[in-house]
Amino acid sequence: MHLRPIQFVDSPVGRDGEVARLAGGMLWFAAYEVTEGKQRRTVTIADFDQKLAQDETAVEIHRAIVKPRPPLTLGDRVLRLDQPHVAGILNVTPDSFSDGGALEDDPVAAADAGFDMAAKGASLIDLGGESTRPGAKPVWEGDEVKRVLPVVERLVKSGTIVSVDTRKAAVMEAALAAGAHIINDVSALLWDDRALEVVAKADCPVILMHSPEPAKGPHGGSGYGDVLIEVYDWLEARIAAVVAAGVDRARIIIDPGIGFGKGLAENLALLNGLAMFHGLGCPIMLGASRKRMIGALSNEAPVGERLGGSLALALKGAEAGVQLLRVHDVAETVQALRAWRGCKDQALVGR
Fold first, then answer.
1. What are the catalytic residues?
2. DSSP state of 284
3. Per CATH, which fold does 72-349 belong to?
4. Residue 97, class by beta-carbon neighbours within 10 Å (0-12 exposed, 13-18 middle, 19+ buried)?
5. Are the CB atoms for 211 and 189 separated by under 8 Å?
6. pTM for the full predicted model
7. DSSP assignment, residue 2?
8. By C-alpha distance, which of 46, 332, 286, 304 is closest to 184?
């Protein structure tokens, strides 16, 4: 069984018993789309006790969907997860698909770029030293450490929350020792045999992203029957394995992996079904910024001309209750979220 929150409403006022709050955040919904095998039906929140309360699986998923996500304590900082946050993308690679390696070999300029994103409203900076674009060559761990470490040190000294985007245990260890707060692994800790041990020992938050064959690379796979259900089930199994290895479930964030081993139709299906992932009981990160799918939907627009699509997908995530939006265009996304938040706030105080 899978439950997807649907029929979102502007305000819960006057709707006691008719709506539920999504993950302790700013959204309320009035019904579930219930999927069992190939059958789908709609069950309203008002009818939940009558139609689903006797099903232990449904009750467990419902509890996971509505429970507030605990804040993340990150050194001296606390990141509350009751509203969407922007994670600014900072690449220090020679072959980044978005910036063409503009910040490689210049840790001062890279850190300054991170400071600028934080000043523009990014809640954290997601720093990467290895490109994960299709066809990118693997980077030796020593070179990756050399790229990211001086940038981590500079950002952390300023009080910036830093996540490090890496698949390698040695890079994780070096970055965490330098003060990085979060590990973001596109292989969900499956590419490097030591990665899970490193994260469990550090007791740090970790982002687990879906890709079809993470031990081989992020862009493999041979297709899907139902991409939404299959990605959900894969992440559910991966969360269970990571928790069993000693990682606190409250410190796990999940990412459906938009663009990783998925075609246009599959990416769109995941975006339309994002709210289902709240059933895993973990915060959600969405990384759709400047992705190839935006170009495919807009006359093959090049990477530098995908701002409009990136903002649309960020707001799509916010409307589904996503807590972390990983983006290149920080100032524009923060402004879009502020306008969205204004609408939400007004709805709560009355028309």
1. 291, 326
2. B
3. TIM Barrel (3.20.20)
4. middle
5. no
6. 0.95
7. E
8. 286
